[in-house]
Fold Malate dehydrogenase.
Amino acid sequence: MKLTVVGAGNVGATVAECVARMDIVQNIALIDINEGVAQGKALDLMEAAPIHGFDTVIEGGADYGITEGSDVTVITAGLPRKPGMSRDDLLKVNSDIVSSVTRQVVEKSPDTILIVVSNPLDVMTYVAYMESGFPSQRVMGMAGVLDTARYRAFLKMELGVSVRDINAMLLGGHGDSMTPLPRFTTIGSQPVTDLIDEARLDEIIERTKKGGGEIVGLMGTSAWYAPGAGAAEMVEAVVKDSNRVLPAAAWVTGQYGLEDLFIGVPVKLGKGGIKEIVELDLNEKEASDMQASGAHVREVIEAYQNLPKDEA
Ligand SMILES: NC(=O)C1=CN([C@@H]2O[C@H](COP(=O)(O)OP(=O)(O)OC[C@H]3O[C@@H](n4cnc5c(N)ncnc54)[C@H](O)[C@@H]3O)[C@@H](O)[C@H]2O)C=CC1
Ligand SMILES: O=C([O-])CC(=O)C(=O)O
């Protein structure tokens, strides 16, 4: 099995490190327009292998020749936001980058599965889908795993229980319009709504929605440990064909009353990519939140479609 990670920056290098430490693929190709950074981080990771005890071979560079025949590709190339920016402000610059890298990836690995991380996430996944011409099962975005992890981390901080016993699902676009689902959140099988009062749970949900921005405010750039681990968890599900049910940005064709866009939904993930979109039975409020989130993603897709097409 071979993984390509495009973008050897903060998130890309973390994805490569996490997957290498799982020791589940034979090769990782780390690509960046900055060749020295890609080569240097690949070499640094190889030098960490004897300590961690993994046998994955990591190669870095700027030439897509090293990506040939990849089974899975994670796209993290693109600019991160700075304080005061929204993810959507990255639309123009990152859509050019994601289009260009997708074309180059697909040329070398026509059968690969694409996991997009670059922001604005749902629309960059759409761009990769359109550019690749791949079946929708093989194109997805990573955001729900991260957003759910943040929600679970905040619940752990609140309740002092192991993260392993916190089960949660979250729907919608990767932005402030995401739709956490307290009704589907359990702590060791107990509904979270029995353990935390509504006002406090609302605060935790609000913090989750703004979790990316909280980190941007602290560091001046966006997060990478949890995002990198989130993408690695998706790679693991595909590589091991484990049929994990994880939230991911997937192409919807009527599920949740939405179609022709990528948005966060629970998917069954394994060999070949998305095997199924799981449809939860939403109540009226959850369904209307999901519609609002879909409307926001649709607006950003339209903004993308209306961009002047000036790239080479
Ligand atoms: N989906 C999600 O939940 C998350 C998404 N992100 C997004 O991931 C992206 C990457 O974030 P970071 O790694 O923190 O940024 P970074 O700046 O550390 O790394 C980005 C890398 O992409 C490279 N790059 C730029 N253009 C390229 C091209 N045409 N071909 C190959 N490489 C290229 C840059 O040289 C840089 O090394 C950003 O768009 C960010 O908003 C970040 C965190 C979470
Ligand atoms: O907030 C950002 O710009 C990066 C991101 O998507 C996240 O950390 O959730």
The first strand starts at residue 2 and ends at 6. Residues 80-81, 87, 119, 146, 174, 212-213, 215-216, 222-223, 227 surround oxaloacetate ion (ligand 2) (CB under 6 Å). The longest helix spans residues 284-305.
